[in-house]
VTT domain-containing protein (Neosynechococcus sphagnicola sy1), 208 residues
Amino acid sequence: MSLEFFSLETIQELAHQYGYWAVFLGILLENAGIPLPGETITLVGGFLAGSGELNYPWVLVVAIAGAVLGDNCGYWIGRYAGWPFLLRLGGFFRISESQLDQAKTQFSQNAAKAVFLGRFVALLRIFAGPLAGIARMPYFQFLLCNTAGAAIWATVMVTLAFLVGHLIPLDELVAWVAKFAALALLLVVAWILVPIWMESRRHKPDNL
């Protein structure tokens, strides 16, 4: 999910104008919890590197740096201010505190995997840092998983656009990557919600 006025054309124009800063700040803000299209920004950076406008190693460096720093900001925001906000948000959607506690426990049990692999999942890339802070994931464990995940994600996205950008249109590449991320999101949602639903069914008295 991203802000609608950040179309692919707008992102390309910003990347043309501001180069590495556009890539760095876009990814940093998304990973800090702001719903910007960081994935698209990374692909555009790799595409421009493939066309010779930007330098591939520098695009990779700023993408990794933006992802790591952004997620660190999100982590500390979640740790100190995230749970009260989540409770208010849950109340708005009529989700009880016990249900949120259960979801937090589910996340805590798999926090390392969520932070490491979450970058390839739509929305989770935005919220993994704040959620890790809310779940009180040990910071050094978070930092290790965050850095490793950022390095792999950025390398895959930048290299993919760098190599494939000349073979297929950039908008098609962005669409394919977005579909993969959305599918991954559906799998993650099912992985979280199905155990909660089964647990609630197990404690529900039988209607005889």
In short: The CA atoms of residues 87 and 109 lie 20 Å apart. The chain has nine helices and no strands. The chain has a mean pLDDT of 77.
